[in-house]
Specification:
- With 401 residues, the protein is an alpha+beta fold.
- It folds into two domains: 191 residues, Distorted Sandwich (Glucose Permease (Domain IIA)); 125 residues, LysM domain (Membrane-bound Lytic Murein Transglycosylase D, Chain A, Roll), CATH 3.10.350.10.
- 18% of the residues lie in helices and 20% in strands.
- It has nine helices and 19 strands.
- The chain is elongated and about 75 Å long.
- Belongs to the E.coli NlpD/Haemophilus LppB family.
């Protein structure tokens, strides 16, 4: 009986946590490749999208072999400064991605304890000297949540004797260095649901002392490790929940000019200002995968460009590096750059990463070398452009070829 009960509990737990995990197809990345011993490493011809440009022959699909491209010497035509940077990279033997020495991302460097305060829905009568923020602090609730529950408009003035509804729920107090991703992992919920529950808006900046409503019911019966495992990292989470909280009366740090200066993982970085202008192609090669739905029903949030190994990948516009790493398994070696005007560019499947988080980069600057990391089945670049949180077809934003 104990074995049956335990099995049932695990099935129930699995179903509960599964509801928190975004589907791999929905994220807009490749699904995992088929087993290598099945002889089906390449997609079937009918599942491949017709390339836009057939002027250049694509490199052959990768044969059955280990990924060692990160150990290759940088190409000779790479500028001396970039060759020097590439020489300092260190290969992760598990993922095959080489990157510069750097601290772990803030959501790993500063984990969050799931200590949200649970508040019951209640009424409160405004007393002399009360402000909305004081009422919120005493109740342990987000001031914005009280304002929404009572249809208050800025500057959120309240009157003595006024009755306010205090909305119930679980409210997490944001501490220094915490990120939205770490908060979501601590409670085992998608960060996108936290955004929706709190009606957070771009640039999704968290501040120390802020309270955020955690959707769903208490998960205290589930271990911290299980809650963290229920969270799946994706590009949207990095863009909206990857920056550390900003302290009150503190401005984010300015971007640095060189990868030799490494910012602390918990240092918030200022977003770039100004429109990015005309985007440039990140590399020259055959376009082998279109934006949008694929032949098998999966969605691609970008395009894929076939490239020889170790081809320099260049920034599509001026910007600030928001992420460097291999935390999204499907995309392998990954660089994400923020541009002005709410634009973001994404570069995946790289073998060597040549920049650091918080670094300012220029249009045309080499930021990585191409590879076949992640779920790539040949040397290629996964490239995305996003306006806000929405992926857009890069081909419509790039110069005609």
């Amino acid at each position: 009986m104990r074995r049956v009960a335990a099995t049932g509990w695990l099935l129930l737990l699995g179903g509960t946590l599964a509801g928190c995990i975004p589907n791999g197809v929905e994220r807009g990345y490749d699904t995992p490749p088929p087993p290598r011993d099945a002889g089906r490493w390449s997609r079937a011809p009918e599942e491949q999208d017709r390339p836009y440009d057939r002027g250049e022959e694509a490199p052959p699909r990768r044969a059955e072999r280990p990924r060692r491209n990160a150990d290759m010497a940088p190409p000779r035509d790479l500028p001396a400064a970039d060759r020097s940077v590439a020489a300092r990279t260190v290969v992760d033997r598990q993922t095959g991605v080489a990157r510069l020495p750097a601290p772990a991302p803030a959501w790993e460097a500063r984990p969050v304890e799931a200590d949200a305060r649970e508040v019951e829905t209640q009424d409160y009568t405004v007393a002399p000297g009360d402000t909305l923020s004081r009422v919120a602090d005493r109740a342990g609730v987000a001031a914005d949540a009280i304002a929404r529950a009572n249809n208050l408009a800025e500057p959120y003035t309240i009157q003595v004797g006024e009755r306010l509804t205090i909305p119930g729920g679980r409210y997490h107090l944001v501490r220094a260095g915490q990120t939205g991703i770490a908060i979501a992992r601590a409670y085992g919920v998608p960060w996108s649901q936290v955004i929706a529950a709190n009606q957070l808006a771009e640039p999704y900046t968290l501040r120390t002392g802020q309270r955020v409503l955690i959707p769903g019911t208490s998960t205290r019966s589930v271990s911290a490790a299980q809650r963290a495992a229920a969270f799946t990292l994706d590009v949207d989470s990095i863009l909206t929940g990857g920056e550390p909280a900003v302290a009150v009366n503190q401005a984010p740090a300015k971007a640095v000019a060189t990868p030799r200066r490494v910012l602390a993982a918990t240092t918030p970085v200022a977003a770039p200002l100004g429109a990015p202008g005309q985007f440039a192609w990140p590399a020259t090669g055959q376009l082998i995968r279109r934006f949008g739905p694929g032949g098998s029903g999966e969605r691609n949030d970008g395009i894929k460009i076939a490239l020889p190994l170790q081809t320099p990948i260049k920034a599509t516009a001026d910007g600030t590096v928001a992420y460097v790493g291999d935390g999204i398994a499907a995309l392998g070696g990954l660089v994400i750059i923020r541009h002005g005007g709410g634009w973001t560019s994404v570069y995946g499947h790289a073998s060597k990463l040549l920049v650091q988080r918080g670094q300012a980069v220029k249009k045309g600057q080499a930021i990585a070398l191409s590879g076949d990391t992640g779920f790539a089945d040949r040397p290629e670049l996964h490239f995305e452009l996003r306006k806000g949180r929405t992926p857009v077809d890069p081909v419509r934003q790039l110069p005609a070829r």
